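notes to self, project folder thing:

trying the whole complex as one job this time. last attempt i did each chain seperately and stitching them together was a nightmare. two parts in total, labels are on each line so i dont mix them up again. if this works i'll redo the older ones the same way
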Amino acid sequence: MKNSISSRMRTLGALALAGTLALTGCAAGAAGPGNGSASEQKYTEEDIQAALKKPTTITYWQWTPGIEKQAKLFQEKYPEITVNVVNVGQGPDEYAKLRTAIKAGKGAPDLAMIEYQFLDSFTVNGSLVDLTAFGAAESKDKYPEWLWSQVDRGKGIYGFPSNAGPMANLYRKDIYDAAGVTTPPATWTEFADAAAKIRETGSYIMTLPGNNAGQTIGYFWQAGAKPFGFDGDKTITVNLDSPEVQKVTDNFQDLLDKGLVDNSNDFTDSWFQGIANGKYASWLTAAWGPVFLDSGTAANTAGSWRVAPLPQWDASKPRSANWGGNGTSIVKGSANPLVAYAFARFLNEDPVSTKMLAFEQSQFPATIAQQEAPDFASNTVPFFGDQEINRVFLDSSAQIDTGFQWLPIMDFVFQSYNETYGKAIADGTNLRAGLTAWQKAIVEYATTQGFTVK
Amino acid sequence: MTSTLNPTRSSSAAKKPAHGNRAVPPRKSAITPRKSGLLTALMVCVAAYFLLPLIWLAFAATKSDTGLFTSFGFAFASDGFKLFDNIASVFAYQDGVFLKWLGNTALYAGVGAIGATLLATAAGYAFAKYEFPGRKALFSVLLGSIMVPLTALAVPTYLLFSGMQLTNTMWAVILPSIISPFGAYLMRVYAADAVDTSLMESARIDGAGELRIFWQIGLRLLAPGIVTVFLFAVVATWNNYFLPLIMLNNGDLFPLTVGLAQWQATSTSGGGGGGGAMFSMVITGSFVSIIPLIFLFLYLQRYWQSGLAAGSVKG
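result (full assembly):
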């Protein structure tokens, strides 16, 4: 409804002005890629600036608290534009509503926040606008290569990266010290030794949660595995039985069998308790992890935490992985794709906005400019003993394999993880068997969905 | 909730057993001998079951995030009494969005409950006092609809409202809330006894129309029942989660239930980008959200008791 009103208003405005400029602007807006008519049409920066001068309202679905501030900034810069920031739910909740609205053909927003691993599930049925026509390729060099490859899916560019989750090891220095682990484990072999020493003090080095596929896939990613592949159309690959994945699996099997890592779920009450009371000495997590601890849940342990790189498989060739993060995409059918594009770009690239993302919304920024900004990179955090923790995450980001891909059915992959691999972790049964079951479930599901599995 | 209901039902049952409403189960409790150790123990258990979570909530609302995870549930945390800090941050977060949710909840519950009470009273009164064709069939439908949980109706209701372009508006929450089959059933049981048919007849002889009898005589006699139905309706709408969850997309329209769940989601899922742990705010927010309900109960209980007394004198 909002769309039809605004387009009517635009038509009225154009008639009233009767200026050629306004008329062409209106025509361009009407024939935008939102209507799916002219996919080869290119837009120039002038088109975007012209669109920003017309009264327009756009809607952005997202769940990061406080993005209204950036919307306000944008509105101050472009007084004709109104940005409605709406939180319709987090992650899967939002995707469900988005899919419903897209299917219904009404009620969808102009922009949506989408996690990288779920982008393909929207591009596979053409629900997102390819930003190439707007000149998005120019943004390529503003982001780390691996991060850009998360939105540039070969077939098109489907969003601007907002934040990232390079992984590292958050650990309790006091517990490590008490156990005689003087330096954080540099390799997975050292990790097992450290786990044994820490177990003797009564703590676990960490938990391997059976409810968090994202983290497990991060471990695979770090080992150099490429479990998933998608050609952007109808062909996918599922490689959960590759040597790299098996290497990770066997390592965890060993640690679990010896009782050196816990198998409780994460983000539960007892997990937070375990973090606060020293049950766990480490949390191998992403750059968005620290905020869950230093915002208060573990304030009693402030100062005794540190951040170290992930343990390596081959110390001479350090590798890392990404867990989580999301971007801003434009939903097909948006009546104002030019304005939506301008906002997405502003939100994720404007220096003032990215600084807010980093410091006020506690995200690990996506742009190289913000990542390397001195006040960010050398920001000291008292919770981590005044360590410059962002430097560890930046080094991690630089070691992330750029070729990691996702499947267009990640919802199912995550869900079936809990019933196969994750269940094997939770029940203490054979992980290899869980892995096989997971692979099988994904292949079967993909086939019923009409994908060719190679 | 059940305990507030029992006196109403049992008193009406005791007053006019001749009417023989089969659907008045708690009659037994009225005739049970006063002393029963077993029953007392049972009631203590039930009371503990209902009260312990509330007491836990009251303690938890005074704790910081760390306190929540490092202290015993039924004791204060060692790092200080944080209730007022928590309340301040709940109301300050995101430019006071909590206050907006509180207002929405009050509006939905208020309008929904008034509507539900009016409709239920009129329907119950009609079922109890008028003979009309199809009365039995309609009443069976009413009874049947009590059996269907609101949650099961949420999706069909969504499709209906979507067809009428009413989703994502206040009406999407208010309109379904003003239908209360259980309230109508309750009012029917209550009206059957509370409104004397001979009183209606004498009013008719004095020339009063049916509407006037309902408004001026019926409503007054039904007051205690009305308060009960109103309370039920307020609580049901106040606590409704699933319906607003699927109906509403706009955060400005959320009631407390959906808003608090959103905060909780922020606290318990990593990887989504943004947020962080805000458990103390979720808990304090929940604590604040039940306070109006407690006051409403305490306040309306007076009316409800005085109404009972008035009824017994007139009876």
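what i see at first glance: Residues 167-321+378-453 of chain A form a domain with the D-Maltodextrin-Binding Protein; domain 2 fold (CATH 3.40.190.10).
need to look closer tmrw
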